[in-house]
Amino acid sequence: MTNKTLLGTATALFGLVMISATPASADLLDDITQAKKIRISTDVAIPPSGMMDSSMKPTGSDVEVAQLLAKDWGLELEFIQTTGATRIPNVLTGKADIIISTLSVTPDRAKVIDFTKRYATLQSDVGCLKSSTVKDWPDLKDKPIGVSRGTTQDTTLSNMKDKDLKISRYDDDATMVTAAVSGQVDCVASSATIINQIGVKNPSRVFESRIPLATFDLAIGLKKGEQRLMDKLNAWITENVKNGKLNAIYKKFHGVELPPDMRS
């Protein structure tokens, strides 16, 4: 055998060794399965979707959705506490595996992360102090509207350039509600559920929905490119919509059922 032939054979064998030594690229579903744990980004300061009970344990509709998912998949659940502004960064940086935290599906967000099919919906309104005279957009002139930074409500109001709105931004829903409860703002833009919570915290300052914003689909968020995890999540949502478990969770905390077109 010539030196040239030996060199060619050695090179080929070296290539095969290198290929076999290169580990197969694992995806996020593999990582979750191997860890036997799923890390879920959830805001526990936005009742009734996420909150702490009297024993300081997480509860709420999103919390129970996350718990049901982990139980069905046989995984340990770790809540990664978050705010509206940090939900998406949590999955992009690998701090959390998925987001279950009143995450509305929007075109801008879909450029950054992937969404599953919807597991719930969110009605958003501008709510004001019950004693106020606000009925429509013109009545909001010069009235600060409290909103949680980085939420769909914040984006929706910010894009209404023709309304000349005065927006007061807060770091999270809990801080925004505190501002409404304490009299810092007489109007907020949020989910109808959170608007109703203000009067519960301070019966002397009851808020009610006055101007509808939009109804948003809520979905589980995950990093782009994780198709196997996406497929498994979608199958899980389909199953638990069909068996009524997701509807039961939503009704338990929000007092209403999921939209009929989700349950049919």
TrEMBL record:
Give the matching SMART domains: PBPb
Q: Name one Pfam family in it.
A: SBP_bac_3
Ordered alphabetically, the record's keywords are: Signal
Signal peptide (residue range): 1-26
* Solute-binding protein family 3/N-terminal domain residues: 37-257
User: Could you tell me which InterPro entries the record lists for this protein?
Assistant: Solute-binding_3/MltF_N (IPR001638)
What name does UniProt use for this protein?
Answer: Transporter substrate-binding domain-containing protein
User: What organism does the record attribute this protein to?
Assistant: Bradyrhizobium barranii
